[in-house]
Amino acid sequence: MAQHKLWNGRDIRSIEFYLAIVGLVIAAYLTIYHYSASVPLACPDSGTVDCAYVLTSSFSMLFGIPIALYGLAFFAMEILLILFDWKWDLLYLNALGITFVVYLLYAEYELGKICIYCTAVHILVISLLILSALNLRRK
Questions:
Q1: For the segment 70-98, what is each residue's pLDDT rounded down to a tens digit?
Q2: Rounded distance, CA 110 to CA 37, Å?
Q3: How many CB atoms within 10 Å of residue 92?
Q4: Sequence-distant (≥ 6) Cβ neighbours of residue 30 within 8 angstroms
Q5: Which helix (H) or strand (E) holds 66?
Q6: Torsions phi, psi of 8, nearest 5?
Q7: H-helix or E-strand containing 103?
Q8: Which pLDDT tens digit goes with each residue over 21-69?
Q9: Cα 88-94-99 angle, rounded to 5 deg
Q10: Could you tell me which of 83, 80, 101, 94 has the C-alpha nearest to residue 130?
Q11: For residue 137, what is the DSSP state?
Q12: Sequence-separated (6 or more) residues with CB below 8 Å from residue 16
């Protein structure tokens, strides 16, 4: 009897690709927000969820570069690596992405505020890491 695979490599790559596109759109939106005062931020701004507070805090910059711009570069690179099917490089990139997730979670903890866009990116990066690890198993 043939072994049934729930997901084949093409399925995983497609899911990775679409998740990376979503991440790229979020990162682009947050980068535009950072550089343009005229772009409204569609997020609550009171209570625990306060994207504007998080995105304008001292944690929103790293080495003088907005975190959102790092995210834009990350997701653009993610898409390229998926398209070229460079599995190990993709796994390494996603492992690096997890370090940013840890940094951002620490920042939100210190600020006592949560950004829903940041949380979405956290979920995307964790999902991409899991999928890239699963993708290594395919032939």
A1: 999 999 999 999 999 888 999 999 999 99
A2: 25
A3: 13
A4: 55, 66, 68, 71, 117
A5: strand 65-66
A6: -100, 175
A7: helix 87-111
A8: 999 999 999 999 989 878 888 888 778 898 889 988 999 899 999 999 9
A9: 135
A10: 94
A11: T
A12: 78, 82, 90, 128, 131, 132, 135
- The full length of the chain comes to 139
The CB density around residue 69, as the number of other CB atoms within 10 Å, is 17
- The mean pLDDT value for 114-135 works out to 94
Q: Are 132 and 83 in contact (CB under 8 A)?
A: no
Residues 97, 74 contacting (CB under 8 angstroms)? yes
> 112: alpha, beta or left, given left = phi > 0 and alpha = psi -120 to 50?
left
Distances (CA, A) of 89 to 29, 65, 125: 26, 24, 15
Residue type for 9, please? G
Structural domains in the chain, sorted by start: 9-34+45-136 (1.20.1440.130)
Q: Per-residue confidence at 6, pLDDT binned at 50, 70, 90?
A: low
The pLDDT, as a whole number, for residue 1 is 40
- What distance in Å separates the CA atoms of residue 117 and residue 68, rounded to the nearest whole number? 10
Q: What is the three-class DSSP state of 123? A: helix
